[in-house]
Amino acid sequence: MLGVVLLGVLALWAVPALLTRQPSAGMTSAERLKAANDVRTPVIAFLLAIGAAATSVFTARSYVLNREGHVTDRYTKAVSQLGDPQSSVRVGGLYALERIGHDSAKDRTTIVYVLGVFIREHSKDPPRRPDDELPEDVYAAIRIAARLLRRSDAILHLRGADLHNTDLSFLRSDQVRLDGADLTGARPPTDPR
Question: In which domain, by residue range, is 47 found?
């Protein structure tokens, strides 16, 4: 606050007096006042422009920080839904993660990693019989990961997952790791070539 007052005094009194001091010989007091006022106008306009620019920078920085905080909050809520006992809540959390992955490129790789963990854990729990299909939430996670991988160079790690009788053809083989996964009767990922 004190800095603003000092800046105002400098802009309205000291700078105009300093800039009009030299050519004031032979001028009337009215002419000196007019010269000082003529200097004040651009000085004040310059200070207002600097203030507006500083306000714009501060507002832009606040917007970015708010947006990042909002994304973090959405991410945390979506991940917490993945542990819910109801399949429909887990699917909602998965689609919320997909939305975040589309909105935030820097979070996309992390989301693909989280989806891989979800698929690995939930593909085996509870154990499936040979003719059982993959649970809907796990299959949704695979489809979501495939869509996010189209816009990323991330790798989906499905090592040790139970993916028997699962269609994985919409995944690219160079973006998925299937070491130790049960792929009995599964349609494998496609070759990117």
Answer: 1-19+27-81
Tokens matching residue 113: 């990693």
Q: What is the DSSP string of 147-175?
A: HHHTT----EE-TT-B-TT-B-TTSBGGG
Least confident of 3-7, 21-25, 71-75, 178-182: 21-25
Residues 57, 2 within the same domain: yes
DSSP H helices, the chain, are 2-9, 15-19, 29-81, 87-103, 105-122, 136-149
Considering 61, 81, 101, which residue would you say is the last residue of a domain? 81
From residue 154, alpha-carbon distances to 79, 118, 157 in Å are: 19, 16, 9
Residue 104: pLDDT above 70? Answer: yes
Q: Do 15 and 47 belong together in one domain?
A: yes
Task: Supply φ then ψ for residue 160, to 5 degrees.
Answer: 75, 5
Q: What is the mean pLDDT of residues 177-192?
A: 92
Token readout for 38 is: 């003529």
